[in-house]
Amino acid sequence: MSTQPEPARTGRPARRDPRKRILPARPLAAAALAAMFVALLYAVELVDVILPAQLDLAGIQARSLDGLDGVAWAPLLHAGWGHLFANTVPVLVFAFLAMAGGIGQWVAVTAIIWLVGGLGVWLVAPPDVVTVGASGLAFGWLAFLLVRGVFNRSAGQLAVAAVLLSLWGGMLWGVLPGNPGVSWQGHLFGALGGILAAWIVARADRAKARRAPGTLGA
């Protein structure tokens, strides 16, 4: 069993649980980081067009050792400006909101989505195509935002998730086969990476709470 002493009455309002934060604590820094990531995507596409460098060939080619390093590069590459334009707003919005737990946490969450999404594509995508694009990251961040509200039991986060679904709910159809030219594998495994990241963050938060002063366990 565990006991927790009654907090001293200091007259100060109770601090809000940081796990239930909806917006980043440093919104300007978060917005700048999201904008810089998108600027990087545009810079890479511009280089690909100007040279031309055929950078898209560095994407993920399933079950090929030569295509495995595409896991590292695929989210930075796009199959033309239209592809990049379609991903821009979701990437900006979801990346920004996913920084509510801090930029360090966002980096870890993004790394999990990047790796799980990329490896999933490498394992199950058709062998005769090269997969590129940041939509897997967007799906991962969206899934993370949806699931964190459940783990945190936060009405505010769940309300934001509902708004995101109403605005970009059509994206969810991309996790199923059927749309030629769209990597449902990237979307599906990106979303699974986001769910995994939300679960890992929730476990880390619970472990941190158990280690907090004022709680005794027996």
Automatic annotation (TrEMBL):
Superkingdom of the organism of origin: Bacteria
Cellular localization per UniProt: Membrane
Keyword terms, alphabetized: Hydrolase, Membrane, Protease, Transmembrane, Transmembrane helix
Transmembrane feature ranges: 25-44, 81-99, 106-125, 131-151, 158-176, 182-202
Domain Peptidase S54 rhomboid: start-end pairs: 74-203
Any one biological process term the GO annotation gives: proteolysis
GO molecular function term, any single one: serine-type endopeptidase activity
Predominant place of localization: membrane
Membrane topology: Multi-pass membrane protein
Gene Ontology cellular component terms for the protein in this record: membrane
Family: Belongs to the peptidase S54 family.
Name listed for the protein in its UniProt record: Rhomboid family protein
Organism: Prauserella shujinwangii
Lineage of the species this protein comes from: Bacteria, Bacillati, Actinomycetota, Actinomycetes, Pseudonocardiales
